[in-house]
Design a protein that fits this description.
The complex is a heterodimer of chains A (about 325) and B (about 260). Chain A is about 35% helix and about 25% strand. Chain A contains 11 helices and 13 strands. The C terminus of chain A is likely disordered. Chain B is mostly helical. Chain B is elongated, with a radius of gyration of 19 Å. Classes of the chains: A alpha/beta (about 325), B mainly alpha (about 260). At the A-B interface, helix 2 of A face helix 1, helix 5 and helix 6 of B.
């Protein structure tokens, strides 16, 4: 378990991390999400006692990182894949780390096997590709067989096979009861791996919620209908008390009804359907909406284009429900 | 707390598994011995052409260490790289995550690297002395003469301390390039030039290399070098103060700054 309490980091006048408090619980994959520059890496470095917090504390199983005996046995971290000496072989890089924490040398071979680097174990790590470097970093995190694992953007630079592998690895590790904390700036990636979600923007906590809750709250689901008897279909839906919105593409969208119910309704009235499909607004849009005000680096729009604030996804179709709610409030 | 023997073992593995260790230390030894041997042979051949004052204060021991002017630079490179590559590779974050106790980490590293530098320095010093004397012919001295053993052991200490001083500086500057960019010209040019300029000489003799090198002189005012306000051991003591200051500075930087 990792507990953050009022964690704050200032660089000069700039606040990188602003009174962050949350808990990373064991047995689940906790996703740490935020746009670039939101303070994810700084937070993770403070968790490992690499950066000194301006104020606030981080506790690993109730203790400060610096008070841990042989910390690699408690917490393994992948921060920067290239954080190894390039002139040393993969095996020796790991051996140095193992020895410092009195981890048996046999374990070095085991983790290299686990990440699939055994064939290149004796090669200098500077010859490694980005993906191989990432695997070596993951091997170093697993070295002490720790209960807590922390990965900063682990899928960066991995090929599809590697991405698939790391997703499964994280799930397996969580199933073993370990605490997994993984950062990403991609909502879609998180949706596939994380059970719990912590979202930050400009160093501030924006959400601390279960993934299921986040999906439930932030993705509007609706049914899309297409029919040559569009007018007739609308009347039928209206009569049944459902509101159908016609889109620019000539399809109808219905909120709050199941595909089964709509299909039966159409059949009852002998209406031909060309499409009947359940739709879900993307989580990526929900995430962008949530962090829109907290994005560090906006892409500069061409002159004459609307200001960045207006560039957020428009409310309405595909927009998360809470955004619409906020407007009504 | 992390187990210190474990960290020492880890640092030893780090040092022995990179090739820069081998080539810097071999260079330190080879350059010192080869250059000293060449100068000793030259001195032997041209002794009679030397000015009278230099012949009177001829110091065969000191001459056999003359190659250290260049050889010490390899020691500086060794010391800088031992610490500097942690920063240039980003390994420092991995290392500190494994050993978060800053003092245990940095002093284990410097202990292991420093001892290795002292051993190589000592071997260099004895080798260059004996080879140099063999080439000096009739002008030679022996290890049994008064103060000669002190000078030879001192030469080894000097080489080791140069490496340790560089480790401290690299820990302060957190960069190999920056450290080498400052230390190499300083020891090779600035210190050498200032020590020959009459006014600046009084300051330059307190520089770590100038003060430490005093231990290698057997004949007072060797080679007509003029009076010195301190003796050989005080000179080494001054160098040691520089080393301690660099280490303390390095430790404070490591402790205070974000990795």
């Amino acid at each position: 378990m990792i507990e953050l309490e009022g964690l704050t980091k200032r660089f000069g006048t700039k606040v990188a991390v602003d009174h962050l408090s949350f808990t990373v619980r064991p047995g689940v994959v906790t996703g740490f999400l935020g746009p670039n520059g939101a303070g994810k890496s700084t937070t993770m470095r403070m968790m490992l006692d690499l950066d000194n917090p301006t104020s606030g504390t981080v506790r690993i199983d109730g203790r400060h990182y610096r008070d841990l005996d042989e910390p690699l046995k408690y917490i393994g971290a992948l921060l920067d894949a290239k954080a190894m000496h390039g002139g040393r072989s993969a095996y020796n890089n790991l051996l140095c780390l193992a020895q410092s924490n009195r981890i048996a040398e046999r374990r070095v071979g085991e983790v290299l096997e686990l990440v699939g680097l055994t064939p290149v174990a004796r090669k200098k790590s500077k010859s490694f590709s980005m993906g191989m470097g990432q695997r070596l970093g993951i091997a170093s995190a697993l070295l002490g067989d720790p209960e807590i694992l922390m990965f900063d953007e682990p899928v960066n630079g991995l090929d599809p096979e590697g991405i698939h592998w790391i997703r499964n690895l994280m799930k397996t590790l969580a199933q073993e009861g370990r605490t997994i904390f993984v950062s990403s700036h991609l909502m879609s990636e998180m949706a596939l791996t994380a059970d719990h979600l912590i979202v930050i923007g400009q160093g501030k906590l924006l959400a601390d919620t279960s993934m299921a809750d986040f999906i439930h709250k932030n993705s509007r689901s609706y049914v899309r209908l297409r029919s040559p008897q569009q007018e007739q279909l609308r009347d039928v839906l209206h009569a049944a008390g459902m509101t159908a919105v016609e889109t620019a593409g000539g399809t109808l969208e219905v909120d709050g009804a199941s595909t089964e119910r709509l299909g039966e309704l159409a059949a009852e009235h002998r209406i031909v359907l060309h499409e009947l499909s359940a739709q879900r607004a993307s989580l990526e849009e929900a995430f962008m909406q949530m962090t829109a005000g907290a994005v560090e680096y906006h892409a500069h729009l061409a002159p004459g284009a609307p200001p960045p604030d207006a560039a957020a996804p428009p409310a309405g179709h595909g927009a998360p429900q809470w955004a619409a709610r906020d407007k009504g409030a | 707390m992390a187990s210190t023997p474990a960290v020492l073992q880890s640092e030893w593995t780090k040092i022995r598994t990179v090739s820069s260790t081998r080539w810097t230390l071999i260079s330190a030894l080879a350059v010192t011995v080869a250059l000293s041997a060449a100068l000793c042979a030259l001195m032997n051949a041209t002794f009679d052409d030397l000015p009278a004052t230099e012949r009177l204060t001829f110091d065969p021991t000191l001459i056999s260490f003359s190659g250290m002017v260049l050889g010490q630079l390899a020691m500086v490179v060794f010391g800088v790289l031992v610490v500097g590559t942690e920063y240039s590779s980003g390994m420092i974050r991995t290392s500190l995550a494994a050993v978060p106790q800053r003092a245990t980490f940095i002093f284990s590293k410097i202990t292991v690297a420093g001892l290795l530098a002292l051993v190589v320095g000592m071997a260099t010093s004895f080798l260059t002395f004996f080879l140099g004397q063999a080439l000096l012919g009739e002008h030679r001295t022996t290890i049994g003469e008064e103060n000669v053993l002190r000078a030879v052991v001192g030469g080894g200490l000097y080489m080791g301390l140069m490496a340790i001083f560089s480790m401290g500086v690299a820990t302060m500057l957190r960069s190999s390039m920056l450290s080498l960019g400052i230390l190499m010209p300083f020891f090779f040019l600035v210190s050498q030039i200032l020590s020959a300029v009459p006014g600046a000489k009084d300051v330059a003799r307190y520089f770590p290399d100038q003060a430490g090198a005093k231990i290698m002189q057997v004949v007072p005012n060797a080679m007509n070098s003029g009076d010195s306000p301190y003796g050989p051991w005080t000179g080494l003591g001054i160098m040691l103060l520089w080393v301690v200051a660099a280490l303390v500075g390095g430790f404070l930087v490591l402790k205070k700054r974000d990795a």
